Fold this sequence. Notes:
The protein has about 475 residues and is of the alpha+beta class. Helix content is about 55%, strand content about 10%. The protein folds into three domains: about 1-30 and about 145-200 and about 370-460, Alpha-Beta Plaits (2-Layer Sandwich); about 35-115, no CATH class; about 210-325, no CATH class. α8 crosses α16 (about 360-390). The mean pLDDT is about 95.
Amino acid sequence: xEIQATTYDAYRLVHEGILAFARAERHGIRVDVEYCKKKxxxxxxxxxxxxxxxxxxxxxxxxxxxxxxxxxxxxxHQLAYILYTVMxxxxxxxxxxxxxxxxEETLQQLNVPELDKILEIRKLxxxxxxxxxxxxxxxxxxxxxxxxxxxxxxxxxxxSDRPNFQNIPKRDEQAMKTSRRAIFPRPGHQxxxxxxxxxxxxxxCCYTEDEKLIYDTLHGDMHxxxxxxxxxxxxxxxxxxxxxxxxxxGKNGFVxxxxxxxxxxxxxxxxxxxAKIGSLRDGTPALEHMQNKGLVTLTKDGKVTKKGIEKFxxxxxxxxxxxxxxxxxxxxxxxxxxxxxxxxxGYIKFLTGFTYxxxxxxxxxxNAPIQGTAFHxxxxxxxxxxxxxxxxxxxxxxxxxxxxxxxxxxNPDELERVAKTIQRVTCKDLPEAWPWWIISPEVExxxxxxxxxxxxxxxxxxxxxE
DNA sequence: GGAACTCGCCAC
DNA sequence: AAACGTGGCGAGTTCC
Length: 466
Protein backbone atom coordinates (compact mmCIF):
# COMPACT_ATOMS: atom_id res chain seq x y z
CA UNK A 1 0.00 0.00 0.00
CA GLU A 2 1.62 3.20 -1.11
CA ILE A 3 -0.56 5.58 0.87
CA GLN A 4 1.08 5.65 4.27
CA ALA A 5 -0.10 7.57 7.28
CA THR A 6 2.64 8.55 9.68
CA THR A 7 2.99 8.12 13.40
CA TYR A 8 2.49 11.85 13.68
CA ASP A 9 -0.89 11.50 11.95
CA ALA A 10 -1.76 8.84 14.53
CA TYR A 11 -0.63 11.11 17.34
CA ARG A 12 -2.73 13.99 16.03
CA LEU A 13 -5.80 11.79 15.82
CA VAL A 14 -5.42 10.84 19.48
CA HIS A 15 -4.68 14.40 20.53
CA GLU A 16 -7.66 15.90 18.75
CA GLY A 17 -9.78 12.92 19.71
CA ILE A 18 -9.12 13.48 23.40
CA LEU A 19 -10.16 17.12 23.06
CA ALA A 20 -13.35 16.24 21.20
CA PHE A 21 -14.20 13.51 23.70
CA ALA A 22 -13.53 15.90 26.58
CA ARG A 23 -16.18 18.24 25.20
CA ALA A 24 -18.65 15.36 24.92
CA GLU A 25 -17.80 14.25 28.45
CA ARG A 26 -18.33 17.75 29.83
CA HIS A 27 -21.65 18.06 27.98
CA GLY A 28 -22.81 14.79 29.51
CA ILE A 29 -26.03 12.87 29.04
CA ARG A 30 -29.23 13.56 30.90
CA VAL A 31 -30.73 10.77 32.98
CA ASP A 32 -34.16 10.51 34.53
CA VAL A 33 -33.20 10.23 38.19
CA GLU A 34 -36.73 9.71 39.47
CA TYR A 35 -37.33 6.94 36.95
CA CYS A 36 -34.09 5.19 37.91
CA LYS A 37 -35.02 5.26 41.59
CA LYS A 38 -38.55 4.06 41.01
CA LYS A 39 -37.51 1.33 38.62
CA UNK A 40 -34.71 0.22 40.90
CA UNK A 41 -37.22 -0.25 43.73
CA UNK A 42 -39.61 -1.97 41.35
CA UNK A 43 -36.95 -4.43 40.24
CA UNK A 44 -36.04 -5.10 43.85
CA UNK A 45 -39.65 -6.01 44.61
CA UNK A 46 -39.78 -8.28 41.58
CA UNK A 47 -36.55 -9.99 42.59
CA UNK A 48 -37.82 -10.50 46.14
CA UNK A 49 -40.96 -12.06 44.75
CA UNK A 50 -38.87 -14.47 42.69
CA UNK A 51 -36.72 -15.26 45.74
CA UNK A 52 -39.87 -16.20 47.65
CA UNK A 53 -40.83 -18.63 44.92
CA UNK A 54 -37.33 -20.02 44.73
CA UNK A 55 -37.38 -20.71 48.48
CA UNK A 56 -40.18 -23.21 47.98
CA UNK A 57 -38.19 -25.37 45.59
CA UNK A 58 -36.33 -28.60 46.29
CA UNK A 59 -33.19 -27.11 44.85
CA UNK A 60 -33.29 -24.34 47.45
CA UNK A 61 -33.91 -26.81 50.26
CA UNK A 62 -30.87 -28.83 49.25
CA UNK A 63 -28.87 -25.64 48.97
CA UNK A 64 -29.99 -24.54 52.44
CA UNK A 65 -29.01 -27.87 53.97
CA UNK A 66 -25.45 -27.35 52.79
CA UNK A 67 -24.95 -23.64 53.33
CA UNK A 68 -27.51 -22.70 56.00
CA UNK A 69 -27.51 -18.97 56.63
CA UNK A 70 -24.48 -18.54 54.39
CA UNK A 71 -26.68 -19.44 51.40
CA UNK A 72 -26.35 -16.81 48.73
CA UNK A 73 -28.38 -17.12 45.54
CA UNK A 74 -25.99 -14.81 43.73
CA UNK A 75 -23.03 -17.05 44.38
CA UNK A 76 -22.29 -19.13 41.32
CA HIS A 77 -19.58 -20.80 43.33
CA GLN A 78 -22.21 -22.20 45.73
CA LEU A 79 -24.55 -23.04 42.88
CA ALA A 80 -21.87 -25.03 41.07
CA TYR A 81 -21.11 -26.94 44.25
CA ILE A 82 -24.78 -27.82 44.77
CA LEU A 83 -25.39 -28.86 41.16
CA TYR A 84 -22.20 -30.72 40.37
CA THR A 85 -20.95 -32.01 43.73
CA VAL A 86 -24.02 -32.41 45.96
CA MET A 87 -26.56 -33.32 43.28
CA UNK A 88 -23.88 -35.01 41.19
CA UNK A 89 -25.12 -33.69 37.85
CA UNK A 90 -22.82 -33.76 34.86
CA UNK A 91 -21.68 -30.25 33.94
CA UNK A 92 -22.62 -29.71 30.29
CA UNK A 93 -19.87 -27.11 30.04
CA UNK A 94 -16.81 -26.09 32.03
CA UNK A 95 -15.35 -22.68 32.71
CA UNK A 96 -11.90 -21.66 31.57
CA UNK A 97 -10.43 -22.81 34.87
CA UNK A 98 -12.07 -26.20 34.54
CA UNK A 99 -14.94 -25.92 37.01
CA UNK A 100 -18.55 -26.72 36.16
CA UNK A 101 -20.11 -23.71 34.50
CA UNK A 102 -23.23 -21.94 35.72
CA UNK A 103 -23.82 -19.57 32.82
CA GLU A 104 -27.19 -19.19 31.14
CA GLU A 105 -26.58 -21.72 28.39
CA THR A 106 -25.45 -24.35 30.87
CA LEU A 107 -28.33 -23.85 33.31
CA GLN A 108 -30.83 -24.15 30.47
CA GLN A 109 -29.27 -27.38 29.29
CA LEU A 110 -29.54 -28.89 32.77
CA ASN A 111 -33.31 -28.84 32.43
CA VAL A 112 -34.08 -28.10 36.08
CA PRO A 113 -37.15 -25.81 36.20
CA GLU A 114 -35.96 -24.07 39.39
CA LEU A 115 -32.91 -22.80 37.55
CA ASP A 116 -35.13 -20.65 35.33
CA LYS A 117 -35.93 -18.55 38.40
CA ILE A 118 -32.25 -18.02 39.06
CA LEU A 119 -31.77 -16.90 35.48
CA GLU A 120 -34.69 -14.52 35.74
CA ILE A 121 -33.31 -13.05 38.95
CA ARG A 122 -29.88 -12.68 37.35
CA LYS A 123 -31.36 -10.80 34.42
CA LEU A 124 -33.23 -8.33 36.61
CA UNK A 125 -30.26 -7.76 38.89
CA UNK A 126 -28.04 -7.07 35.90
CA UNK A 127 -30.38 -4.30 34.76
CA UNK A 128 -30.75 -2.90 38.25
CA UNK A 129 -27.13 -3.00 39.36
CA UNK A 130 -25.08 -2.54 36.21
CA UNK A 131 -27.25 0.09 34.56
CA UNK A 132 -29.90 1.91 36.61
CA UNK A 133 -27.86 1.89 39.81
CA UNK A 134 -24.70 2.92 37.98
CA UNK A 135 -26.53 5.87 36.41
CA UNK A 136 -27.69 6.99 39.83
CA UNK A 137 -24.25 6.56 41.31
CA UNK A 138 -22.56 8.56 38.54
CA UNK A 139 -25.11 11.27 37.88
CA UNK A 140 -24.55 14.87 38.95
CA UNK A 141 -27.55 17.21 38.81
CA UNK A 142 -29.29 14.73 36.54
CA UNK A 143 -26.41 14.23 34.09
CA UNK A 144 -23.95 11.39 33.70
CA UNK A 145 -20.56 12.13 32.19
CA UNK A 146 -19.26 8.86 30.78
CA UNK A 147 -15.53 8.89 29.98
CA UNK A 148 -14.30 7.88 26.54
CA UNK A 149 -10.72 6.63 26.77
CA UNK A 150 -8.15 6.40 24.01
CA UNK A 151 -5.31 4.90 26.02
CA UNK A 152 -6.67 1.56 27.29
CA UNK A 153 -7.17 -0.73 24.32
CA UNK A 154 -4.46 -2.74 22.55
CA UNK A 155 -6.01 -2.18 19.14
CA UNK A 156 -6.28 1.59 19.67
CA UNK A 157 -10.03 1.40 19.89
CA UNK A 158 -11.72 3.41 22.64
CA UNK A 159 -13.21 2.25 25.90
CA SER A 160 -15.75 3.92 28.16
CA ASP A 161 -16.24 3.96 31.91
CA ARG A 162 -17.88 5.66 34.89
CA PRO A 163 -20.35 4.58 33.65
CA ASN A 164 -19.57 2.50 30.59
CA PHE A 165 -21.72 4.03 27.89
CA GLN A 166 -20.77 1.37 25.34
CA ASN A 167 -22.60 -1.66 26.70
CA ILE A 168 -26.11 -0.49 27.47
CA PRO A 169 -28.58 -3.25 26.47
CA LYS A 170 -29.95 -3.14 22.96
CA ARG A 171 -30.80 -6.70 21.85
CA ASP A 172 -33.02 -7.95 24.68
CA GLU A 173 -36.30 -6.04 24.51
CA GLN A 174 -36.96 -5.80 28.25
CA ALA A 175 -33.39 -4.97 29.19
CA MET A 176 -33.19 -2.42 26.38
CA LYS A 177 -36.40 -0.64 27.31
CA THR A 178 -35.75 -0.62 31.03
CA SER A 179 -32.19 0.67 30.71
CA ARG A 180 -32.55 3.11 27.83
CA ARG A 181 -35.72 4.61 29.27
CA ALA A 182 -33.33 6.32 31.71
CA ILE A 183 -31.34 8.17 29.01
CA PHE A 184 -32.66 11.54 27.82
CA PRO A 185 -31.59 14.51 25.72
CA ARG A 186 -31.42 18.03 27.19
CA PRO A 187 -34.86 19.65 27.53
CA GLY A 188 -36.30 20.50 24.12
CA HIS A 189 -33.65 18.37 22.35
CA GLN A 190 -33.68 14.94 20.74
CA UNK A 191 -31.19 12.08 20.47
CA UNK A 192 -29.76 11.39 17.02
CA UNK A 193 -27.48 8.38 16.54
CA UNK A 194 -25.54 7.72 13.34
CA UNK A 195 -23.63 4.50 12.81
CA UNK A 196 -21.51 3.04 10.03
CA UNK A 197 -22.99 0.02 8.26
CA UNK A 198 -20.70 -3.01 8.30
CA UNK A 199 -17.64 -0.89 8.89
CA UNK A 200 -15.32 -3.73 9.90
CA UNK A 201 -16.02 -5.64 6.70
CA UNK A 202 -15.43 -2.45 4.72
CA UNK A 203 -12.13 -1.87 6.50
CA UNK A 204 -11.22 -5.48 5.73
CA CYS A 205 -11.87 -4.59 2.07
CA CYS A 206 -9.40 -1.69 2.38
CA TYR A 207 -6.67 -3.88 3.87
CA THR A 208 -7.14 -7.00 1.78
CA GLU A 209 -8.31 -5.46 -1.51
CA ASP A 210 -10.22 -8.73 -1.94
CA GLU A 211 -12.32 -8.30 -5.07
CA LYS A 212 -15.05 -10.71 -4.07
CA LEU A 213 -15.31 -9.23 -0.58
CA ILE A 214 -15.67 -5.77 -2.09
CA TYR A 215 -18.25 -6.96 -4.61
CA ASP A 216 -20.29 -8.81 -1.97
CA THR A 217 -20.22 -5.84 0.38
CA LEU A 218 -21.51 -3.48 -2.29
CA HIS A 219 -23.82 -5.67 -4.35
CA GLY A 220 -24.11 -9.13 -2.84
CA ASP A 221 -25.40 -10.92 0.24
CA MET A 222 -22.56 -12.90 1.79
CA HIS A 223 -24.61 -13.94 4.83
CA UNK A 224 -27.46 -15.25 2.68
CA UNK A 225 -25.04 -16.97 0.30
CA UNK A 226 -23.32 -18.74 3.16
CA UNK A 227 -26.66 -19.79 4.69
CA UNK A 228 -27.64 -21.33 1.34
CA UNK A 229 -24.40 -23.32 1.26
CA UNK A 230 -24.35 -24.27 4.94
CA UNK A 231 -27.96 -25.46 5.12
CA UNK A 232 -28.11 -26.65 1.48
CA UNK A 233 -31.01 -24.41 0.52
CA UNK A 234 -32.19 -23.87 -3.06
CA UNK A 235 -32.61 -20.18 -2.36
CA UNK A 236 -33.16 -17.84 0.55
CA UNK A 237 -35.58 -14.98 1.03
CA UNK A 238 -35.44 -12.75 4.10
CA UNK A 239 -39.15 -12.06 3.92
CA UNK A 240 -39.88 -15.53 5.30
CA UNK A 241 -39.13 -15.44 9.05
CA UNK A 242 -37.83 -19.02 9.13
CA UNK A 243 -35.41 -18.28 6.31
CA UNK A 244 -34.44 -14.99 7.90
CA UNK A 245 -33.34 -16.98 10.94
CA UNK A 246 -31.18 -19.16 8.72
CA UNK A 247 -29.58 -16.06 7.21
CA UNK A 248 -28.94 -14.78 10.74
CA UNK A 249 -27.29 -18.15 11.36
CA GLY A 250 -25.09 -17.67 8.31
CA LYS A 251 -24.08 -14.26 9.63
CA ASN A 252 -23.70 -14.80 13.38
CA GLY A 253 -22.92 -18.52 13.30
CA PHE A 254 -20.41 -18.52 10.48
CA VAL A 255 -19.35 -15.34 8.67
CA UNK A 256 -18.57 -13.15 11.69
CA UNK A 257 -16.92 -15.92 13.72
CA UNK A 258 -14.81 -16.81 10.68
CA UNK A 259 -13.68 -13.21 10.32
CA UNK A 260 -12.70 -13.23 14.00
CA UNK A 261 -10.65 -16.38 13.47
CA UNK A 262 -13.01 -19.11 14.64
CA UNK A 263 -12.95 -22.55 13.02
CA UNK A 264 -15.48 -25.01 11.57
CA UNK A 265 -15.83 -27.08 14.76
CA UNK A 266 -17.34 -24.27 16.81
CA UNK A 267 -19.22 -22.92 13.81
CA UNK A 268 -20.93 -26.26 13.18
CA UNK A 269 -22.25 -26.43 16.74
CA UNK A 270 -23.37 -22.82 16.52
CA UNK A 271 -25.14 -23.38 13.23
CA UNK A 272 -27.06 -26.37 14.58
CA UNK A 273 -28.48 -24.06 17.26
CA UNK A 274 -29.58 -21.62 14.56
CA ALA A 275 -31.07 -24.47 12.56
CA LYS A 276 -33.38 -25.25 15.48
CA ILE A 277 -35.16 -21.92 15.00
CA GLY A 278 -35.03 -21.93 11.20
CA SER A 279 -37.43 -23.27 8.63
CA LEU A 280 -38.16 -23.16 4.92
CA ARG A 281 -40.92 -21.09 3.35
CA ASP A 282 -43.08 -24.24 2.95
CA GLY A 283 -42.87 -24.76 6.70
CA THR A 284 -40.34 -27.58 6.75
CA PRO A 285 -38.20 -27.26 9.87
CA ALA A 286 -34.58 -26.59 8.95
CA LEU A 287 -33.26 -29.69 10.73
CA GLU A 288 -35.69 -31.92 8.87
CA HIS A 289 -34.63 -30.32 5.60
CA MET A 290 -31.00 -30.89 6.52
CA GLN A 291 -31.68 -34.53 7.21
CA ASN A 292 -33.35 -34.86 3.80
CA LYS A 293 -30.24 -33.34 2.27
CA GLY A 294 -28.03 -35.78 4.16
CA LEU A 295 -26.36 -33.12 6.30
CA VAL A 296 -27.45 -34.59 9.65
CA THR A 297 -29.27 -37.55 11.13
CA LEU A 298 -32.02 -37.07 13.71
CA THR A 299 -33.42 -39.19 16.51
CA LYS A 300 -37.14 -39.93 16.71
CA ASP A 301 -37.74 -36.88 18.89
CA GLY A 302 -35.92 -34.64 16.45
CA LYS A 303 -32.53 -34.27 18.12
CA VAL A 304 -29.32 -34.31 16.11
CA THR A 305 -27.41 -37.55 16.70
CA LYS A 306 -23.72 -37.69 17.55
CA LYS A 307 -23.09 -39.06 14.08
CA GLY A 308 -25.18 -36.22 12.69
CA ILE A 309 -22.98 -33.64 14.39
CA GLU A 310 -19.90 -35.30 12.93
CA LYS A 311 -21.42 -35.31 9.46
CA PHE A 312 -22.42 -31.67 9.64
CA UNK A 313 -19.01 -30.67 11.03
CA UNK A 314 -17.36 -32.27 8.00
CA UNK A 315 -19.74 -30.30 5.77
CA UNK A 316 -18.90 -27.01 7.53
CA UNK A 317 -15.20 -27.84 7.26
CA UNK A 318 -15.49 -28.05 3.48
CA UNK A 319 -17.39 -24.80 3.35
CA UNK A 320 -14.78 -23.12 5.51
CA UNK A 321 -12.06 -24.29 3.14
CA UNK A 322 -13.98 -22.95 0.16
CA UNK A 323 -14.70 -19.70 2.01
CA UNK A 324 -11.02 -18.92 2.44
CA UNK A 325 -9.36 -20.74 -0.46
CA UNK A 326 -11.74 -19.69 -3.20
CA UNK A 327 -14.38 -17.18 -2.20
CA UNK A 328 -12.20 -14.76 -0.22
CA UNK A 329 -8.76 -15.89 -1.29
CA UNK A 330 -7.50 -12.30 -1.36
CA UNK A 331 -8.43 -11.95 2.30
CA UNK A 332 -6.59 -15.16 3.12
CA UNK A 333 -3.52 -13.96 1.26
CA UNK A 334 -3.58 -10.74 3.28
CA UNK A 335 -3.82 -12.71 6.51
CA UNK A 336 -0.80 -14.81 5.60
CA UNK A 337 1.24 -11.82 4.45
CA UNK A 338 0.38 -9.79 7.56
CA UNK A 339 1.14 -12.62 9.97
CA UNK A 340 4.46 -13.23 8.23
CA UNK A 341 5.37 -9.56 8.38
CA UNK A 342 4.59 -9.44 12.09
CA UNK A 343 6.70 -12.50 12.77
CA UNK A 344 9.60 -11.04 10.84
CA UNK A 345 9.48 -7.47 12.16
CA GLY A 346 7.66 -7.82 15.48
CA TYR A 347 5.09 -5.19 14.61
CA ILE A 348 2.59 -4.11 11.98
CA LYS A 349 1.41 -0.68 10.88
CA PHE A 350 -2.22 0.34 10.49
CA LEU A 351 -3.50 2.38 7.55
CA THR A 352 -4.01 5.16 10.10
CA GLY A 353 -0.32 5.20 11.09
CA PHE A 354 -0.64 3.35 14.41
CA THR A 355 1.92 0.66 15.24
CA TYR A 356 0.77 -2.61 16.79
CA UNK A 357 3.57 -4.34 18.65
CA UNK A 358 4.17 -6.74 21.49
CA UNK A 359 3.27 -10.40 21.88
CA UNK A 360 0.11 -11.33 20.02
CA UNK A 361 -1.60 -14.54 19.00
CA UNK A 362 -2.52 -14.89 15.36
CA UNK A 363 -6.20 -14.06 15.74
CA UNK A 364 -5.45 -11.05 17.91
CA UNK A 365 -2.91 -9.72 15.48
CA UNK A 366 -5.09 -10.11 12.40
CA ASN A 367 -8.10 -8.59 14.10
CA ALA A 368 -6.28 -5.55 15.49
CA PRO A 369 -5.79 -3.45 12.34
CA ILE A 370 -9.37 -4.02 11.27
CA GLN A 371 -10.93 -3.22 14.62
CA GLY A 372 -8.62 -0.28 15.27
CA THR A 373 -8.93 1.28 11.84
CA ALA A 374 -12.71 0.96 11.86
CA PHE A 375 -12.81 2.91 15.10
CA HIS A 376 -10.34 5.51 13.80
CA UNK A 377 -12.73 6.23 10.97
CA UNK A 378 -15.46 7.00 13.49
CA UNK A 379 -12.99 9.02 15.55
CA UNK A 380 -11.92 11.11 12.56
CA UNK A 381 -15.57 11.91 11.83
CA UNK A 382 -16.31 12.65 15.48
CA UNK A 383 -13.47 15.20 15.52
CA UNK A 384 -14.63 16.81 12.27
CA UNK A 385 -18.24 17.08 13.36
CA UNK A 386 -17.11 18.47 16.70
CA UNK A 387 -15.00 21.12 14.95
CA UNK A 388 -17.90 22.17 12.75
CA UNK A 389 -20.19 22.30 15.77
CA UNK A 390 -17.74 24.72 17.43
CA UNK A 391 -17.23 26.87 14.34
CA UNK A 392 -20.91 27.12 13.56
CA UNK A 393 -21.81 27.52 17.23
CA UNK A 394 -24.35 24.74 17.25
CA UNK A 395 -26.71 24.35 20.16
CA UNK A 396 -26.41 20.67 19.27
CA UNK A 397 -23.58 18.71 20.87
CA UNK A 398 -21.89 15.36 20.41
CA UNK A 399 -22.43 13.48 23.65
CA UNK A 400 -21.18 9.96 23.11
CA UNK A 401 -19.75 7.29 20.87
CA UNK A 402 -20.04 3.49 20.62
CA UNK A 403 -17.13 2.32 18.42
CA UNK A 404 -18.88 2.83 15.08
CA UNK A 405 -21.68 5.15 16.14
CA UNK A 406 -21.88 8.77 17.29
CA UNK A 407 -24.64 10.33 19.34
CA UNK A 408 -25.77 13.92 19.31
CA UNK A 409 -27.96 15.79 21.73
CA UNK A 410 -29.78 17.67 19.00
CA ASN A 411 -31.68 20.94 18.87
CA PRO A 412 -34.65 20.09 16.59
CA ASP A 413 -34.21 23.37 14.69
CA GLU A 414 -30.73 22.21 13.75
CA LEU A 415 -31.63 18.59 13.03
CA GLU A 416 -31.42 18.80 9.27
CA ARG A 417 -28.16 20.72 9.33
CA VAL A 418 -26.64 18.28 11.82
CA ALA A 419 -27.80 15.24 9.88
CA LYS A 420 -26.51 16.67 6.60
CA THR A 421 -23.16 17.51 8.15
CA ILE A 422 -22.70 14.04 9.61
CA GLN A 423 -23.75 12.43 6.34
CA ARG A 424 -21.23 14.54 4.42
CA VAL A 425 -18.36 14.07 6.87
CA THR A 426 -18.79 10.30 7.11
CA CYS A 427 -19.50 9.43 3.49
CA LYS A 428 -17.64 12.13 1.55
CA ASP A 429 -14.99 13.91 3.63
CA LEU A 430 -13.69 10.75 5.30
CA PRO A 431 -12.79 8.81 2.14
CA GLU A 432 -11.35 12.00 0.64
CA ALA A 433 -9.12 12.57 3.65
CA TRP A 434 -8.10 8.91 3.77
CA PRO A 435 -7.87 7.68 0.16
CA TRP A 436 -7.08 4.15 1.29
CA TRP A 437 -10.85 3.97 1.82
CA ILE A 438 -11.28 2.14 -1.51
CA ILE A 439 -14.92 1.22 -0.90
CA SER A 440 -17.55 3.82 -0.08
CA PRO A 441 -18.56 4.15 3.57
CA GLU A 442 -22.26 4.05 4.42
CA VAL A 443 -24.16 5.23 7.47
CA GLU A 444 -27.56 4.67 9.03
CA UNK A 445 -29.35 6.84 11.57
CA UNK A 446 -31.85 6.57 14.39
CA UNK A 447 -33.75 9.45 15.91
CA UNK A 448 -35.82 9.82 19.06
CA UNK A 449 -38.70 12.30 19.32
CA UNK A 450 -38.11 15.62 21.11
CA UNK A 451 -37.78 15.13 24.89
CA UNK A 452 -38.03 11.37 24.50
CA UNK A 453 -35.78 8.71 26.03
CA UNK A 454 -33.35 6.52 24.12
CA UNK A 455 -35.63 3.48 23.98
CA UNK A 456 -37.99 5.31 21.59
CA UNK A 457 -35.56 5.54 18.68
CA UNK A 458 -36.88 5.12 15.17
CA UNK A 459 -35.12 4.74 11.88
CA UNK A 460 -34.32 8.15 10.44
CA UNK A 461 -33.55 8.70 6.79
CA UNK A 462 -30.56 10.98 6.47
CA UNK A 463 -30.89 13.82 3.96
CA UNK A 464 -29.04 13.28 0.68
CA UNK A 465 -25.77 15.13 0.31
CA GLU A 466 -24.52 15.70 -3.18
C1' DG B 1 -9.76 -4.04 54.62
C1' DG B 2 -8.07 -3.77 50.04
C1' DA B 3 -5.95 -6.04 45.86
C1' DA B 4 -6.43 -9.50 42.60
C1' DC B 5 -8.79 -13.05 40.97
C1' DT B 6 -13.03 -15.72 38.67
C1' DC B 7 -17.40 -15.80 36.58
C1' DG B 8 -21.04 -14.06 34.06
C1' DC B 9 -22.93 -10.75 30.84
C1' DC B 10 -23.66 -6.32 28.46
C1' DA B 11 -21.83 -3.77 23.99
C1' DC B 12 -19.29 -3.54 19.15
C1' DA C 1 -1.58 -28.09 16.38
C1' DA C 2 -5.11 -25.22 17.60
C1' DA C 3 -9.18 -23.12 17.08
C1' DC C 4 -13.74 -16.13 18.54
C1' DG C 5 -11.37 -10.27 18.31
C1' DT C 6 -11.92 -5.69 21.84
C1' DG C 7 -13.60 -3.81 26.22
C1' DG C 8 -16.13 -2.53 31.54
C1' DC C 9 -18.21 -3.91 35.57
C1' DG C 10 -20.98 -6.17 39.52
C1' DA C 11 -20.72 -9.74 42.79
C1' DG C 12 -18.44 -13.34 45.01
C1' DT C 13 -14.22 -15.21 46.53
C1' DT C 14 -9.43 -15.65 47.85
C1' DC C 15 -5.17 -13.89 49.35
C1' DC C 16 -2.29 -11.00 52.05
